[in-house]
């Protein structure tokens, strides 16, 4: 596709369940980023990938959060044992290479009940 | 810890007025981006500034990067209702591609 796509667009889950969020970057982009946007917190960096490796995962809030990228393309962000404070919009971005312009997807709106 | 303080957080003005949004930090950034975000969508890049003192214009929007590359401003001349939205500044640090975002400015321009 022409832009970054994310799925699902909305996710409602119960506390304690696991969720997987998917990001399809722009074709050919080697760098991929995950951010979280919540009320009162703004946009927070979570993790980025260069190819399939993650040089910086310093923003992951806890060990319940993990992410992987396969084939240098699609990435999934997994949240285990979700908590209500995980409710937020999870945004993915990609760039042609590290430090180049980041293009954002529409986000996944996660609500944990 | 790098922080980017953005102000004001909320701004409600009448059509035709001018406004300025500020982003300030004690950290030096290799570049600074301004994004605009509409409800239900991801941020869309407006401009990137990379050189200290740089000024860029995009129609009625003027972006400036501070000489020391620690601060930036966005000035909108003769605001229109179509300018309504969330404006975000984001600084890039040298290590990797991580962006540090300001808290955002929610702009409402009333006809």
Would you mind describing this structure in some detail?
Chain A has 113 residues and is an all-beta fold. Chain A has one domain: Sandwich (Immunoglobulin-like), CATH 2.60.40. Chain A has strands spanning 5-7, 10-13, 19-24, 31-38, 42-50, 53-56, 65-69, 75-79, 88-95, 103-104, 108-112. In chain A, a hairpin with a 3-residue loop joins strand 4 and strand 5. With 111 residues, chain B is mainly β. Chain B has one domain: Immunoglobulin-like (Sandwich). In chain B, strand 6 and strand 7 form a beta hairpin. The mean pLDDT of chain B is 93.
Short description:
The complex is a heterodimer of chains A (113) and B (111). With 113 residues, chain A is mainly beta.
Summarize the helices and strands and which ones pair or pack:
The complex is a heterodimer of chains A (about 110) and B (about 110).
Chain A lengths: L4 E3 L2 E4 L5 E6 L6 E8 L3 E9 L2 E4 L8 E5 L5 E5 L8 E8 L7 E2 L3 E5 L1
Parallel strand pairs in A: 2-11
Antiparallel strand pairs in A: 1-3, 3-8, 4-5, 4-9, 5-6, 7-8, 9-10, 9-11
Chain B lengths: L4 E3 L2 E5 L4 E6 L6 E7 L6 E6 L5 E4 L2 E5 L5 E6 L8 E8 L6 E3 L3 E6 L1
Parallel strand pairs in B: 2-11
Antiparallel strand pairs in B: 1-3, 3-8, 4-5, 4-9, 6-7, 7-8, 9-10, 9-11
